[in-house]
Design brief:
CATH architecture of the largest domain: 3-Layer(aba) Sandwich
CATH class of the largest domain: Alpha Beta
Number of strands: 10
Number of helices: 11
CATH topology of the largest domain: Rossmann fold
Distance between the termini: 52 Å
Order of helices and strands: EEEHEEHEHHHEHEHEEHHHH
Low-confidence stretches: none
Helix content: 25-40%
Mean pLDDT: 89
Strand order of the largest sheet: 6-7-8-3-9-10
Largest sheet: 6 strands, mixed
Strand content: 15-25%
CATH superfamily of the largest domain: P-loop containing nucleotide triphosphate hydrolases
């Protein structure tokens, strides 16, 4: 569980990036944090594994205050994948990158080998095992950074803009993996501008603006309410836009999933034929 109480954070420049944020993320939840640039999203999640410490207020992860323990100790259970993979990668090969944390956390050689192979296969990186991550594309480096965190199987996974540079197939693999993590009771927190990805996943959504949380609720509720999204300069998902236009025909407006949308449209067409 992540507990945030009256969190304020000021950068050395004097900019107050967080202004009294309070929230609870329960174990096993999938939460998407959204908002325009500068809203405080990344600053907030960097508090979840101690990369940043509060200027005021408290952050507790599984009952432990982040100011009273090290980043290394927090990172064992709260894995963080940076928005820019170049801020995270440093090893000479993809294989070494993935093995680094595993070795530091004391995994034995057999387990390390199995976890490396599993992560490489999961993220379609097996062919790059002996390649320098800095020779890969931006999207591939992003997947290497993700693999290096997934390999040690943290209880909480924090992903900053995970879909940037990924095609639809990779996004779908990520979505399926998040679902798998939820079935295992893991907590997943993503920071993203990708409203279509969030719509397909339908997690709990936190909207941020100017260092505070302006909306908090189920994805279906938040992502189908234009006036709520407008607070954080976010547009409706495409499916929601279509069904908002079709509301006058008696169709529900709170639709964000393409498969649900297809079923509703087909049923409506069948009724009209009859």
């Amino acid at each position: 569980m992540i507990e945030v109480e009256n969190l304020h954070f000021r950068y050395p420049s004097g900019v107050e990036a967080l202004k009294g944020v309070s929230l609870i993320i329960k174990k096993g939840e999938f939460v998407a944090i959204m908002g325009q640039n500068g809203a405080g999203k990344t600053t907030l999640v960097k508090h979840f594994n101690g990369l940043l410490k509060p200027s005021e207020g408290t952050v507790r992860v599984d009952g432990v205050e982040t100011t009273k323990t090290s980043v290394a100790a927090l990172s064992r259970n709260a894995g963080f994948v940076f928005q820019n993979p170049d801020h995270q990668l440093f090893s000479e090969t993809v294989e070494e990158e993935i093995s680094f944390a595993l070795k530091n956390f004391g995994f034995d050689e057999e387990t390390i080998e199995k976890r490396i192979t599993w992560a490489l296969n999961l993220l379609a990186l097996a062919q790059y095992r002996k390649t320098s991550p800095f020779l890969l594309s931006g999207g591939e480096r992003k997947r290497v950074a993700l693999a290096s965190v997934l390999a040690w199987n943290p209880e909480t996974l924090i992903l900053d803009e995970p879909t940037i540079g990924q095609d639809y197939q990779q996004k779908e693999k990520l979505r399926q993996f998040i679902v798998q993590m939820q079935t295992q009771g893991k907590t997943v927190v993503i920071v993203t501008h990708d409203v279509e990805f969030v719509a397909e996943c339908n997690p709990r959504v936190l909207l941020m603006k100017d260092g505070g949380v302006v909306a908090d609720g189920e994805g279906r509720e938040i992502l189908t309410t234009p006036e709520v999204l407008a607070q954080s300069s976010i547009v409706l998902p495409q499916i929601a836009q279509v069904f908002l236009k079709l509301e006058s025909l008696g169709l529900p407006k709170d639709v964000i999933d393409v498969y649900e949308a297809k079923e509703i449209v087909l049923k409506n067409l069948e009724k009209r034929r009859k």
